[in-house]
Amino acid sequence: MTQSLPRIISGIEGLDQILGGGFVEGASYIVQGQPGAGKTILANQVAFSNVREGRKVLYITLLAETHDRLFQVLGTLDFFDRSQLGVTISYVSVFQTLRDDGLSAVVELVRKEIARQGATLLVFDGLLNARDRADSPLDVKTFVAEIQSQAAFVGCSVLFLTSTRFADDSPEHTMVDGVIELHEEVPGVRSVRRLQVKKSRGSAALGGVHQFEITSSGLTAYPRLEAALRSPSVQDGPSSAAVASGVGGLDDLLGGGLPASSVTLVFGPSGAGKTAIGLSFLAKASKDEPALHFGFYETPARLRAKARALGVDIDSPIEAGDLEFIWEPMTENLLDKLGHQLLQAVRRRKVKRLFLDGLGGFQRAAVHQPRMTEYFSALTNELRALEVTTIATWELRDLFGPTLTAPGSELSSLIDNLVMLRHIETRSRYKKALSVLKVRDSAFDPAIYEVSFGNTGIRIDVPLPPVVNATTGMATPLAT
Amino acid sequence: MALIVIAEDEFLIAEVLTIMLEDAGHEVEAAPHGQAALSLVKEKRPDLVITDFMMPLMTGLELAQALRADEELSAIPIILVSGAQASIGRAHPDMFDDVLDKPYEEKRLLKAVEGALAGKCST
């Protein structure tokens, strides 16, 4: 039987999952990255999380900013607790000892200080300075080995911070149990923070790079969704039940309604009725079927106004607490943050009706586009397993046109049900048309229907007069 | 001119403090932690000790307690200069002749030094 290692939690949301359960107790890690990458905030956040757990922390610096300057910066962050300074967490500099007496003296001083403080976490900020004082790679290896063995002997975990990116086969890397690299990249004009666990001895860390951000709460990491949810978090239990779409006439086309725990993609050009369908779907929210609107375009206030204009009552479920709106303007979003935020909101309220308006908002947030298929796969699998019935939208670029491109790369294959909306020009009039292209495990009406808007909501119950080329948007009456 | 021992682990702060006091005409000996400072005080018998709080091996409070417990050294005035733990220092008026907050303000520091050397607290 395999044995799990005792852990200390990082206190950084998302990081423990990336590390495979947190830092291993008594183990040593290198946290490396360029200046400004977030190493100091990470280490201090871990330190104060340990302090809150009743542990003692020793924070050792070499040649760095003064501790008072550090405290000023930390004072802007929620986790920092000034009252614990010198009580459960001590910041001491050993630079003069390093300069005057060398690496061995530092090791001896650190050993005494860990024992004196009863520390269970040691942060050593400035490994590069220690390297500069060493005469050979063997000196560095010996120094790291001595520090970590002295610490491990008393069950103290160690974080070595360094501003240099050590090579994977550097003496420092070979000695420690784990290596975390923080990096800020600039794809185009924006910047994105990413972290990678490059070494994780004894732990199945989530591989690859993961996005993180720094706010007044400190660091928050967002495990790459397709890695964190390689398989859904709960067992998927397919259901044959149908869920009312809330759109007059649509359930008949779908063969009785939307299959429960399925994902429906409603795609079409701007103004074709995608959001109207979504609002009608959300208006059916109840205590048994809590609903969520997760959107990138209109604000909640505008959506409420739109629903009122359509004659769709979403005010009642909102006031009853059965419908929640999350609006993430399509500005500078982090793809994995969006996914985790969505799934947290779904889990928190046990959401059963979800309207995603639209998938393009996720795609725009992606720095690395080729991962979108895997990302959407993880997201939709999780939503199905959580028994959420989802309607997502996808906006087609062209209002009209002779060609019709399937939405997203391989996206259609991840979707259970496909509903297409088009603007159609016929007899000098524009009409909106809807057709069902695919319903999971169910027969459906393949006819094309007109979409009509009234003061009691959207309706889909009048078949389009016979035309050809309706899907291209340029219909011509069927010759009789 | 007085002989002053500084107990300060942060090298850059110790340097600045030394220059500040030497410019004011004092002789300065610096120690990188409380234990080294205690040895230095025993050896040099200074007129004044200026100490930080958080230091390796011995805190400023522990250093003050050790000095006050030593009959031969207990009369040496001690000034605590600390960023975050000044309140701990103020809670021990029997240990410190004065408590100053970091960052250092030269005039305020020199006034405190003169006050401590004259046998009175400047605050």
UniProtKB/TrEMBL annotation, chain A:
E.C. designation(s): 2.7.11.1
Signal peptide: none
Domain KaiC: 6-235, 241-474
Organism domain of life: Bacteria
Keywords: Hydrolase, Kinase, Phosphoprotein, Repeat, Transferase
Cross-referenced Gene3D superfamilies: P-loop containing nucleotide triphosphate hydrolases
Enzyme type, top EC level: transferase
Name of the protein described by the UniProt record: non-specific serine/threonine protein kinase
UniProt organism field: Pseudorhizobium tarimense
TrEMBL record, chain B:
Residues bearing the modification 4-aspartylphosphate: D52
InterPro entries cross-referenced by the UniProt entry: Bact_response_regulator, CheY-like_superfamily, Sig_transdc_resp-reg_receiver
Database matches in CDD domains: REC_hyHK_CKI1_RcsC-like
Domain Response regulatory, chain residue ranges per copy: 3-117
Annotated SMART domains: REC
Keywords annotated in UniProt: Phosphoprotein, Transcription, Transcription regulation
Listed Gene3D superfamilies: 3.40.50.2300
Top-rank taxon: Bacteria
Pfam families: Response_reg (PF00072)
Protein name: CheY-like chemotaxis protein
Gene source species: Pseudorhizobium tarimense
Lineage of the organism: Bacteria, Pseudomonadati, Pseudomonadota, Alphaproteobacteria, Hyphomicrobiales
